[in-house]
């Protein structure tokens, strides 16, 4: 077998060799005879996904979240997301027959009824809100006492993205916003989210916490010390940095 990159997944962990994705022929990376799915290309070589089993116990695995700053982060997210999809879709939702990989595309097919299932992608929004020289940062329940970050949430069925941004900010903070504009996106495979990032300006209202989601939310001045922020490589940090740059263009009162 020709040389390739091999992404070996175990839940939300990825196997690395000296901090890098294993590369070589199947026998060189101890994967001879293993089933794999080709999921892309890197540096001109194919990338194969392999789901870990007992034979991989001695490999060094790293949590996907800790690899967010790597150049190959999106490819790693693709591997983990597809692995989660394959594990959670073993039987047809229409007739309960076993599913099999389709031949011509990355999908699962039912030979009994012809039903075809494609990888799950769950869109979500993440938004940084600015008020003059201040940025809104929140401490979420999952980061209690730690990281302060932007607001985020999942898109509901039949809901336009722009409405999701408005709704999530209102539900979590009690604030109304305006001038919503798209910033960028980032896959977040825990297990299959795609985060769509936005910038927005404060319109009206006072902060009123949705306590089931947030421990705290405050306005922070761009020239004052900030709390602990999300790690490098996250779209949350990119949104915060972009907003702080905009804040500094506002003339002090």
Automatic annotation (TrEMBL):
Binding site for substrate: 65, 105, 118, 236
Pfam families on file: NUDIX, Zn_ribbon_NUD
Cofactor(s) the protein requires to work: Zn(2+); Mg(2+); Mn(2+)
Amino acids binding a divalent metal cation 3: 168, 172, 213
Residues that bind Zn(2+): 92, 95, 110, 113
Top EC category: hydrolase
Enzyme Commission designation: 3.6.1.-, 3.6.1.22
Domain of life assignment: Bacteria
Cofactor binding note from Swiss-Prot or TrEMBL: Binds 1 zinc ion per subunit.
Catalysis performed (reactions): NADH + H2O = reduced beta-nicotinamide D-ribonucleotide + AMP + 2 H(+); a 5'-end NAD(+)-phospho-ribonucleoside in mRNA + H2O = a 5'-end phospho-adenosine-phospho-ribonucleoside in mRNA + beta-nicotinamide D-ribonucleotide + 2 H(+); NAD(+) + H2O = beta-nicotinamide D-ribonucleotide + AMP + 2 H(+)
InterPro entries (alphabetical): NAD-cap_RNA_hydrolase_NudC, NudC-like_C, NUDIX_hydrolase-like_dom_sf, NUDIX_hydrolase_CS, NUDIX_hydrolase_dom, RNA_Hydrolase_NudC, Znr_NADH_PPase
Subunit structure: Homodimer.
NCBIfam families: PRK00241.1
Similarity field: Belongs to the Nudix hydrolase family. NudC subfamily.
Name of the protein in its database record: NAD-capped RNA hydrolase NudC
GN (gene name): nudC
């Amino acid at each position: 077998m020709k040389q390739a990159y091999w992404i070996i997944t175990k839940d939300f962990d990825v196997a690395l060799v000296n901090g890098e994705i294993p590369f070589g022929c199947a026998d060189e990376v101890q994967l001879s005879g293993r089933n794999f799915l080709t999921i892309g290309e890197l540096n001109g070589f194919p990338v194969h996904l392999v789901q870990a089993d007992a034979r991989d116990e001695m490999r060094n695995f790293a949590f996907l979240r800790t690899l967010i700053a790597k150049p190959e982060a999106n490819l790693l997210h693709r591997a983990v997301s597809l692995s989660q999809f394959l594990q959670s879709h073993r039987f047809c939702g229409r007739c309960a027959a076993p599913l099999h990989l389709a031949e011509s595309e990355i999908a699962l097919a039912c030979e009994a009824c012809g039903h075809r299932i494609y990888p799950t992608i769950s869109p979500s929004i993440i938004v940084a809100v600015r008020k003059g020289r201040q940025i809104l940062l929140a401490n979420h329940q999952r980061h209690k006492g730690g990281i302060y970050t932007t607001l985020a949430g999942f898109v509901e069925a039949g809901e336009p993205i722009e409405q999701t941004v408005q709704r999530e900010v209102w539900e979590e903070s009690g604030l109304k916003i305006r001038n919503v504009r798209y910033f960028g996106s980032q896959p977040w495979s825990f297990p299959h989210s795609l985060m769509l990032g936005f910038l927005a300006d404060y319109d009206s209202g006072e902060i009123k916490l949705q306590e089931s989601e947030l421990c705290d939310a405050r306005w922070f001045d761009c020239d004052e010390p900030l709390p602990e922020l999300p790690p490098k490589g996250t779209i949350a940090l990119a949104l915060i940095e972009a907003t702080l740059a905009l804040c500094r263009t506002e003339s002090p009162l």
